Amino acid sequence: MMCFPLQRTVRAICTRGDISLSTWTNLGAGANNYVYSLALDKDENLYAGGYFTSAGGRVANRIAKWNGSTWTNLGVGMAGSSPVVSALAVDGVANRLYAGGEFTMAGDKVSARAAYYDIVPEPVMLVGATLPLVLMLQRRNY
121-138 pLDDT, tens per residue? Predict the structure, then answer.
């Protein structure tokens, strides 16, 4: 893995493989303000945290998920007097996204600048002999 220091709001970019063969691609319409942190889950969803209130033209208060084609919010996001998400980390075993920053509310929970979000995998379609069955995993908020 190679890391390259950057300036201003992003401290470094790390990549696998040969960066000289890579090209930049946008992530849809992006965010309407600063993105300070990114994290990738085991299903290759990208989470962004920062000082934005929308991503991809959708309301996303300081935190959002990019699934490779669409931005979605994570509930109502983060709130506080001047909320910002400055750090994200994914625990792939527990399926949790951890966020840190200047916020006092994460979703509808009082949170003193740190919180976690249970990542719910996309629905899985199981096809039986005669009847399709859709499994939905429930999100828990703490």
Answer: 766 555 554 444 444 444
